[in-house]
Specification:
The chain is about 55% helix and about 15% strand. With about 180 residues, it is an alpha+beta fold.
Amino acid sequence: MTETIVKDAEEHMKKAVLTMVEEFKGLRTSRASASLLDRIFVDCYGAKMPVNQVATILSPEPQLLVIQPWDKSILRNIEKAIQQSDLGITPTNDGNVIRLPIPPLTEERRKELAKIAKKYAEEGRVAIRNIRRHTNDILKNEEKEKKISEDELLRTQERIQKLTDKNIHEIDELLAAKEKEIMEI
């Protein structure tokens, strides 16, 4: 019984960490990364589609992304979607591909991005703590209903705390790496 509860908590904590990692991918660093375009959707074929589902995205140089649409008729739509996004990058369209030169970040923008990364990390930590609290509530309820013993409750709560500590430590490490990447010139 407690094994299922622990596995469920562990799974939810992993998802919280993965969610934070996905948020981090959207933060722009001074290097070109195809993940910058993950949140940009293009109007084509009567629907909104992610750029990576309508084009090949290459990074031939550290400061350049090249977007090559599979259907050249949507080239203008991709360019328009990038211009309307909050990326702050002006695309150049040569009729075949779109080039996105990634300008170096200013010190002020780097600090701003580091703050955003910290915010995402804190949201991840809060999610993990909420999972711990919810799981402990379930365990206490199980003990109250005499489904598990008090000793088993304490042992399982200890395991949940170790899982919480492990996942929060992982978030802290990921944040430190992302901050280093953002502040890198």
